[in-house]
Task: inverse folding
């Protein structure tokens, strides 16, 4: 490795904890049944006006069994089910739910999205029972113009309960030291 | 009606002003409790000048440029994007898509997010296929009666 975070920083602690887990399946779990209201609300929020997202009759006439989710909706949802109680959230509000390893302890790393690749294999229809498998693909420290960072890449495969793949996506976030340490 | 596209064709720009209200609703619907998107005081503590747009919201707006520009005869099969810089609300954004490859039932388009300053905040590539070109196992065979 040509570069590692400076010793005794939050990023160094994170890197030491997380890099050995590269390749591990972080979670495989049932997400429950995707409902039409969630799909419709997502469409309304992003301004998507196509009625296939909220009108079952329009969706059926377009050839879908029920309303269909906008392309990146599954990738965008952070917490499924009821979510994490507030007292268990990190200071920045992010949850420790296994989808994105954020380190053990109170590291207070700053996190931002960096990019994503997605393959949309089958349409995502209301009423689908979803299963998600998440794998840690890479943990890469870098020195950037804005300071030391660690880029973390995870892959996420969304499937139906029967095992049919709906979406595959590979997501990268960038982690930075807390403000006082950067 | 069938519209054909050629390499070099440019879709209509999607122009959109992202507000703090939209960020709040996007956080809510995606059950995303990350405070940089809805808590301005906290966002500033992290060094941001304001409320940061969600990367997935920017991606969703970029995808709207493609799906609305092409119409229901096409569907997205692949998409990748890289964020060049963060964006803060309120933000006047425009998304532009240009066809870079066209081979019958599939096309590739390049996508960018344009800022009023002239900068590009986001670059992406999207692959689309004709909706009638796949089986009933996947996307619909027929778009007869589809609502645009």
Result:
């Amino acid at each position: 490795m040509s570069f590692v975070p400076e010793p005794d920083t939050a990023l160094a602690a994170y890197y030491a904890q997380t890099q050995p887990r590269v390749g591990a399946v972080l979670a495989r779990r049932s997400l429950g049944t995707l409902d039409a209201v969630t799909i419709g609300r997502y469409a309304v929020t992003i301004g998507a006006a196509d009625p296939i997202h909220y009108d079952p009759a329009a969706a059926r006439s377009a050839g879908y069994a029920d309303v269909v989710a906008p392309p990146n909706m599954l990738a965008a949802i952070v917490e499924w089910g009821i979510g994490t109680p507030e007292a268990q959230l990190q200071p920045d509000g992010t949850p420790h739910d296994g989808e994105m390893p954020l380190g053990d302890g109170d590291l207070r790393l700053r996190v931002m999205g960096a990019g994503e690749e997605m393959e949309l294999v089958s349409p995502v229809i209301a009423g689908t029972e979803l299963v998600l498998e998440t794998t840690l693909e890479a943990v890469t420290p870098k020195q950037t113009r804005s300071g030391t960072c660690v880029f973390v890449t995870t892959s996420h495969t969304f499937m139906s309960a029967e095992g049919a793949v709906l979406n595959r996506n590979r997501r990268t976030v960038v982690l930075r030291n807390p403000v006082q340490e950067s | 009606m069938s519209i054909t596209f050629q390499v070099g064709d440019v879709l209509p720009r999607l122009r959109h002003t992202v507000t703090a209200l939209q960020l709040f609703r996007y956080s809510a619907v995606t059950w995303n409790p990350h405070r940089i998107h809805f808590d301005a005081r906290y966002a500033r503590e992290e060094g941001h000048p304001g409320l940061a747009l969600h990367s997935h919201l920017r991606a969703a707006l970029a995808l709207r440029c493609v799906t609305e520009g092409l119409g229901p005869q096409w569907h997205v099969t692949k998409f990748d994007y890289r964020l060049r810089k963060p964006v803060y609300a309120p933000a006047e954004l425009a998304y532009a898509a240009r066809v870079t490859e066209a081979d019958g039932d599939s096309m590739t388009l390049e996508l960018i997010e344009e800022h009023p300053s002239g900068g590009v905040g986001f670059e992406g590539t999207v692959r689309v296929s004709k909706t009638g070109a796949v089986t009933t196992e996947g996307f619909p065979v027929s778009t007869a009666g589809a609502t645009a």
